[in-house]
Structures are given as C-alpha cells and as structure tokens.
Write a structure and sequence with these properties.
about 500 residues; alpha+beta; 3 domains; 5-stranded mixed sheet; 5-stranded antiparallel sheet; 17 helices; about 40% helix
C-alpha cells in the first residue's frame, strides 16, 4: 500500500490541496471554504440549490492523496496512522437549506431508486455517503433531485436507513423492481380500483349492489407510498380478477391484501423522514388484530389524555393539542377548508398522518345524538355579527369545554372575555393577510370539543379519543379493518 502524503500541521497541506482542486468547481467560491486550524476542521459550504456533484470527486481525490480514517454522512476525517497515532483533519461539506420544500414525489422516487439499486443490482450500502458516492446510484438521484440538488444530501441518510430496514425484514424475497409514477405503479393502480369499493354496501330493489359509504381517496384508506411486489404483473392480474367488476366491500379488499401480505407477494410501505444520526424502525400495521392496535395507546386511560386547548380562547393563535401519554399527540389546526387532525409521534421527527375529517364527523355523530359539529368551514360564522346571532349556542359549548381550560376568561361581560377575543379575531388578520380566519377556526374548535365532551360514558370516552389517534396513524382501533395492511419505516424512538 502506497504511503499517504502528510496532511501537514493543522491540516495545512490538505487545505492547500482542497482550494487548488475546488478552482475547477463552479459551485464553490473562495469565501465558502472556511478552515479552522485550531479545531482541525474545514467547512466547505454549498449555497442552496448548488451542484453537489463535486463532493464525491473531491473526497476520492483527497482519500488517494492523504488517506481517509472515517466518514459520517458529509463529514470526513482525512489522514493516516503515524507511530500508532491517528493524525487527521476533518472536512465538513455543508449544504445550506433551500427555501422550497422537496416535493413528496421527489423523495419517494428517490427511495424507489435506492431500493432497486440494493435489491435488483445488489448494491451494498453502509451509509448515506455510500449512496452518494456510488456512481450509478448518484447519476439517477441527480436526475430525480434536479432543481432540488441542495436537498439530496439531507435525504441520503433516510434512504440508507430505509433500505437497510427493508432488506433486514424482506431481503430474501425475489421482488420485482419498484415502480413509481407510471402505469405499473401500485399507488395509481389502487387509486383507480378503490373507486368501486365501499366501507358500507347495500342493494337496491333490483338487487344491484350500491355504495352507502364510499372509501374515499386512496390516501384516506392506505398510507403506503410505494409497494414491494413479487412477480408484479401476476399480482396485479390476481387483484383485478378477484375484485368484482361492480362494487366490492372494503373488508373483502383488505382481506385479500392481508393474504398477499402474509405470503410476501405484496407489501405496501409508508415512508417517513429519518433524522440525522437517527435509526429507522420497521413496524407492521393492520396485517393482524394485534397490529391494528398500539400497545402504548391501549394501556392509556382517559385520565392519561391531556387536552392543551387554551388557544381556543387565547388571542392570535388557533392550534390546540391532544396529548396521549408520553408517546403520541394530535394537533388540531386550521386550513382553508376547516380543521385538520394531525397525529404526531413524540420524541421523534415523525408524523403519524392526518385523521380523515369525514371519519371524525362520523365518530361524533355515532357517539353524540345532539352533535352540532360540522367539518365544513362554511357552516360557521365569518364575522362578529354572525357570531353574535348565535352567541347563546356558543356560550353553552363554552361552559362544556371550560373545565378543560386553565385561566380562561368568562364567556361575556365587560373586560376581557371570550366574546371580546372573538371580536378581536374577526377584526384582525393573519401574517399571510387572511382576515377573520382565526375567529372562525376558534369557533370550529370550540364546537368540536363542546360536542366531544358530551360523551360521558367512561369506556366510550376513551375509545372516542383513541380512535381519533388510531385513524391518524392509519391503524384500526380494536381490530377494526378500516385501513390497508402495510409496513411503516419511520424513525426509531429513543
């Protein structure tokens, strides 16, 4: 093995070589190479959207000349052992965040590319850096991330952890190549098939099957972003042959998918971002009764559920929180059409998903005979005058919710009150310039909780609130087959 060149005292020769080589790279400027000799570190900064292809080229050159002791994502310790002691200098490649968020389509397609490289082309990746440094993989990822180049490095660690977990669990199967955004893509396939599937069916007078309650959009039923298929064309053919040309029940479809899931013929995969330095974990969902529940949720009692809902009456804000012990929460916030229910896995960067608003409304109607909550934002006051006409209705709701507030003002009267807050909200604007929306959002939130807190039965209370979380996590509470079987590859909680 050839003797490596010296990095020099405090990395002097290494930094000289870096600056010399970077002259040929247009994406790097002189002022973006920042050596800190005291700390034996050199930072090379890429501006948002800059071409990051120089990184593996430069790393390979420096490794050949000076030696490479270790690497971690985009940090490299160059140098060699001298007299039994490691003499190194660290080089960090820093890619600044870009303002435009990477579209879901981009990183999902990136995942399929890395999966195919690992499964079909038998690539052995040991880190996110390995993925970026692999010539064939990098070429395809550069095409996928065109226009979002500055984000590729952020996702490389996620890609590595995802494929590692998948291979550990399913690597022995001879999977077909992953398809994405084409006519063989299972997401598109099921999005079309689900149009003739119903949660509840009936028959008309002529005996024709009719949908009473449609499944809705693909995303409501199935959180899978990509699919692993064994002999893909045959799997799709079998599904088409087993689905009625007319209408079919969701239970039948889920039963068929569970059977394929168990036989390792078809596996839906939900993908989540894995934070830097974090590990991924693969979790089964809805393939059997015990995986339609989450143990940490099942052990909760109603008293373990915390309602952080003061923002209903506090001015200037309109997001509230339901906390389920240490591990989970649901955030309720406004959007243009109403209120969203977003589940969150605490202590991680992972989100569980949104609870379908149609299901929330159905759940309330089932449990509250006098339910007045509507998912439609147009059913609520758009001005203070409209609110004043229904003030007595909202006062009753306020009295129901008030025990769950802390430090809440009275509903009305002189001085600070809920009424004065609503008046203020309808007269104000959000940072984005939308007028009065917080007023309407607060009334929607008050109406939701005012109806939900009417549930007094101990068991029904717990089931109602845990079902909202289950539906956001896309799992069926207590063995309910409302969602498709799948695996989730998300961040491992500490």
């Amino acid at each position: 093995m050839a003797v490596k060149s010296s990095i020099g005292v405090q990395g002097k020769f290494l930094n000289i070589e870096i600056k010399k080589k970077l002259k040929s790279f247009k994406s790097i400027k002189e002022g973006e190479v920042n050596p800190d000799e005291k700390k034996k570190v050199t930072n090379i900064v890429f501006e948002p959207g800059a071409d990051t292809k120089p990184i593996p080229k430069l790393v390979n050159h420096l490794e050949k000349k000076f030696g490479l002791m270790s690497s971690d994502n985009n940090s490299y310790d160059f140098g060699t052992l001298r007299g039994g002691k490691a003499i190194t200098h660290r080089v960090n490649f820093i890619i600044k965040n870009i303002s435009k968020k990477t579209p879901t389509k981009v990183f999902e397609k990136g995942t399929t590319e890395v999966f195919n490289q690992a499964l079909i082309n038998n690539k052995k990746f040991k880190s996110g850096t390995d993925i970026l440094n692999d010539k064939d993989t990098r070429k395809e990822l550069d095409k996928i991330f065109k226009g979002y180049e500055g984000e590729l490095t952020k996702w490389s660690h996620t890609f590595y952890e995802q494929q590692k977990e998948f291979l550990k669990e399913f690597g022995k199967n001879e999977w077909s190549a992953f398809e994405y955004d084409n006519e063989r893509d299972f997401v598109k396939f099921f999005a079309d098939q689900i149009k003739r599937v119903g949660r509840t069916l009936t028959k008309d007078k002529k005996g024709n099957i009719m949908v009473v309650e449609p499944v809705g959009r693909y995303e409501v039923w199935n959180p899978s972003d990509i699919w692993a298929a064994y002999k893909l064309p045959q799997v799709q053919k079998d599904i088409e042959n087993n689905l009625s040309p007319e209408t079919q029940s969701l239970a039948e479809l889920n039963s068929m998918l569970i059977d394929m899931f168990k036989k390792r013929r078809l596996v839906g995969i939900s993908l989540k971002l894995i934070g830097k330095g974090k590990e991924a974990k693969l979790v089964y969902r809805n393939d059997k009764p015990e995986n339609m529940r989450i143990a940490n949720i099942e052990t909760l009692d109603f008293k373990d559920i915390e309602f952080d809902i003061n923002n209903i009456w506090a001015p200037g804000v309109a997001t509230v929180y339901i906390k389920y012990g240490k591990y989970f929460s649901v955030n309720l916030t406004r959007n243009d059409s109403g209120i969203t229910f977003a589940s969150q896995i605490n202590r991680t960067a992972a989100q569980g998903g949104n609870t379908p608003v149609d299901m929330v409304q159905k759940l309330l109607k089932t449990n509250v005979t006098s339910n007045t909550y509507s998912k439609n934002i147009n059913d609520y006051p758009k001005s203070f005058d409209e609110f004043a006409e229904k003030a007595k209705e909202y006062e009753k709701l306020y009295d129901t919710v008030k025990p769950y507030f802390s430090g809440a003002p009275p509903f009305g009267g002189t001085g600070k009150s809920f009424v004065s807050t609503i008046q203020e909200e309808f007269g104000g604007e959000t940072k984005s310039g939308k007028k009065g929306v917080n007023g309407t959002a607060k009334l929607m939130l008050l109406t939701f909780f005012g109806n939900a807190f009417k549930i007094t039965n101990k068991d029904k209370k717990k089931e109602f609130w845990t079902d909202i979380l289950y539906m956001g996590m896309k799992v069926g509470g207590k063995g309910k087959g409302e969602f498709a079987p799948h695996v989730k590859i998300g961040e491992k909680s500490s």
